[in-house]
Amino acid sequence: MTVDIAHNFETVSEAMAKLERNVQASRQGIAQYLRLVVGSGLIRDSAMVRLMDLQHRQSILSYTMEGKNSGAIVVTLK
Q: Which CATH number fits domain 2-76: 1.10.3720.10, 3.40.50.2300, 3.30.1370.110, 3.90.76.10?
């Protein structure tokens, strides 16, 4: 599943809320991975911090940049 949280004029707080909603919804479904399109600015930086926290709380397994595309993050949910 792919979700763009950065390119519809979202504020950082709106993008983080969208990130949280989609991680939670994806965890409740059958998806193993979630691809987040985060862009290259403050939203990406905030998403990395939020994902680090979610991993620490064991809400996600891991996350990584999508290869050479620094504007997308792949989250491993299960």
A: 3.30.1370.110
